[in-house]
Design brief:
This protein is α/β, with parallel strands linked by helices and 350 residues long. The protein has nine helices and twelve strands. It has helices spanning 2-18, 38-52, 68-71, 134-141, 147-169, 205-222, 238-246, 257-264, 266-269, and strands at 73-76, 83-94, 111-133, 187-189, 233-236, 275-278, 292-296, 303-307, 309-319, 324-334, 337-338, 344-348. The strands form three sheets. The protein has a five-stranded mixed sheet, with helices on one face. Strands 2-3-10-9 form a four-stranded antiparallel sheet. It has a three-stranded mixed sheet with strand order 1-8-11. Strand 9 (309-319) and strand 10 (324-334) form a beta hairpin. This is DUF2184 domain-containing protein.
């Protein structure tokens, strides 16, 4: 039995390495067909593996976080421009009687006045070149893919990420700021808790609530007690968001700290439901690299950005020197425009 198996193996090896047709002397019977030599074995199997490969037709792009559309109102349109502006008006009266109360015989009637001013904001021009080598495009078309489409997607992703960064931290080389680092917004340290720590992980749910309520109170006081100026949205770092979302208020564990905060804060009690969102840009944004909490009013009338020109193909031309087609993409977007700085505030050290 052992002899027969050995003879069978030797015969099979001889056929496969000779490249000739052969007949096995023992069962299972006759085998017809060309064998493969050593070179054919390697290249043939590679080809076979390629034919049997199940390829995912999708192009897997880099993972990224784009949250600007969630946190700010964007105003499209306006065309190519250098700046964008808003006009404000303050009201006052002249005269010595600030109450404007007069008697039956008086010659001192206050006069109503209006002071009109304008704030000017910078507009950034974004531009990149999409260069598609002709022969690379033709090669990729053989496998059903388009290099121009791939690069087009890449430019649009880069554009979205630039707007995202502009919304939250501005662009340093143009001297602009974003939502979480504007020097004109009042920033204060979180209060010390009973543990002598400002960190939320060392505070009780009530102490965390006090931090939030104090922040919201600061905005409504600074806005002249106008409830429309009370902040109703909070942005915090992911670590603290995860902590309040997962930690129960009590040992019984029936409610998380996050749910407790959303239901019992002073904004919700005043008919302005509070929203709390995690944001990567809050990490280390506070003074001394601490975690920053931001509260603000997410309304177009309080803070927004302009998008005068959407990302567009401005021009396309062939480049015979490099054998490629080149397309210029361009867009415009403004810096973050705080129309009322009193409607926003920061708390650091949480």
């Amino acid at each position: 039995m052992i002899y027969m198996e050995t003879a069978y193996k030797k015969a099979m090896d001889a056929v496969m390495l000779s490249g000739q047709r052969g007949i096995m002397p023992q069962s299972p019977g006759a085998i017809y067909g060309p064998g493969m030599d050593a070179g054919g074995t390697s290249t043939g199997l590679v080809f076979l593996a390629g034919e049997l490969e199940k390829q995912d037709p999708r192009l897997l792009e880099p993972m990224t976080s784009l949250t600007a559309p969630r946190d700010i109102d964007m105003k499209p349109g306006g065309g190519w421009t250098s700046i964008t502006s808003n006009v404000f008006v303050d009201y006052a009266t002249s005269g010595s009687d600030e109450d404007s109360i007069i008697g039956s015989e008086t010659n001192n009637i206050p006069v109503s006045q209006a002071n009109i001013s304008k704030d000017v904001f910078k507009v950034h021009t974004f531009s990149e070149i999409l260069r598609v080598p002709l022969f690379d495009e033709l090669k990729l078309q053989q496998i059903g893919k388009s290099l121009s489409t791939i690069l087009d997607t890449g430019i649009r992703l880069q554009h979205s990420k630039m707007i995202d960064r502009n919304v939250y931290v501005g662009i340093s080389k143009t001297g602009t700021y974003g939502l979480i680092n504007n020097p004109l917004i009042v920033a204060a340290n979180a209060a010390l808790g009973a543990s002598a720590s400002r960190l939320w992980v060392n505070k009780t749910p009530t102490e965390i609530m006090n931090d939030i309520n104090q922040l919201l109170t600061n905005t409504v006081i600074a806005s002249g007690y106008d409830l429309s100026g009370m902040a109703s949205r909070i942005l915090i770092d992911w670590s603290n968001y995860g902590y309040i979302a997962n930690t129960p208020v009590t040992i019984a564990g029936t409610q998380s700290i996050l749910s407790y905060l959303l239901e019992n804060n002073i904004a919700t009690k005043q008919g302005r439901p509070l929203e709390i969102f995690p944001l990567q840009w809050c990490t280390g944004a506070g003074v001394g690299g601490t975690q920053r909490m931001m509260a603000y009013v997410k309304e177009e009338s309080k803070v927004n950005i302009d998008l005068p020109v959407p990302l567009s193909r401005v021009m396309t031309a062939p480049n015979t020197t490099s054998g490629s087609y080149e397309t210029i993409f361009a867009s415009q977007f403004s810096q973050v425009k705080f129309l009322f700085y009193t409607c926003a505030a920061y708390t650091d050290g949480i």
